[in-house]
Amino acid sequence: MGEDVMVDWSAELGSGRELVARTATADRVADVLRTRIIEGLLAPGTRLSEEAIARVLGVSRNTLREAFRLLCHERLAVHELNHGVFVRVLSVDDVVDLYRLRRLIESAAVRAVGQHPPGALEAVRAAVSDGERAAARDLWREVGTVDLRFHQALAGLLDSPRIDELMRGLLAELRLVFHVMPSPHRFHQAYLARNREICELLEAGNVGAAEHALTVYLDDAERELVNAYRERGVGAESMSDAGTALLR
Q1: How deeply is 50 buried, as exposed, middle or buried, from its count of CB atoms within 10 A (0-12, 13-18, 19+)?
Q2: Which of 110, 129, 233, 243 could make an SS bond with 45 (beta carbons 3.0 to 4.6 A apart)?
């Protein structure tokens, strides 16, 4: 490329300084809202009040709108013209697709466990113990959060930052699916023992049995969730009809 068509790229970049600063803040705001979704505090259909959230978090409307756009891109929120932004209500098709992706990632992670040094399973083991402690205290929403952490730890066995990021987004969507279950206690309790079983099989080096247990686990969980969706007819109504105002 000749010098006559060269531009001062550093000067051009400078014009984006304000956007970068705003976006960096928007990332942090989006992370706060994403965390609340993963913790089960923001249910599907919840209206995200722009005025209230901006006031509580002490950010500008522009920054908050950037954060909303990020969450919409991640399929965690949806914007309805003239109604506002809502936590997304997932459909049965979403459930099936999420579990299709989970099988690819988590099964590959289980098969790869023998390639990692001692200590690679510590995060998996910690999530199992934390889930059991939360159940003993009858904190079933927290059990659901820790269950997601267990599966994030399984994916972490692949030692891939890109897969970790993909899994975080997948599990945030999955948390929205969990809300369809009428009893978190009844849904999550059965999987506590299965989490421990998978962890112990991996610790014993029995990768084949661990992968089989995981496959049955995911099949059963998907079936339960799909059946619950169909029984309750969730996913067809509009966000505004399903929603409740956040920080009204």
Answers
A1: middle
A2: 243
Count of structural domains, the chain = 2
Task: Please tell me whether residues 105 and 68 are part of one structural domain.
Answer: no
Q: Tokens 């339960």 identify what position?
A: 224
Whether 6 is in a domain gets the answer: no
Q: Which residue has the tokens 């899994």?
A: 167
Task: Name the pLDDT band for 55 (thresholds 50, 70, 90).
Answer: confident
| Whole-structure pTM value | 0.82
- Is residue 139 domain-shared with residue 153, that is, in the same domain? yes
186: domain range?
Answer: 92-232
72 and 100, same domain (yes or no): no
State pLDDT tens for residues 56-93: 888 888 888 999 999 999 999 999 988 899 999 999 99
81 and 107 co-located in one domain: no
What are the pLDDT digits (tens) for 130-153? 999 999 999 999 999 999 999 999
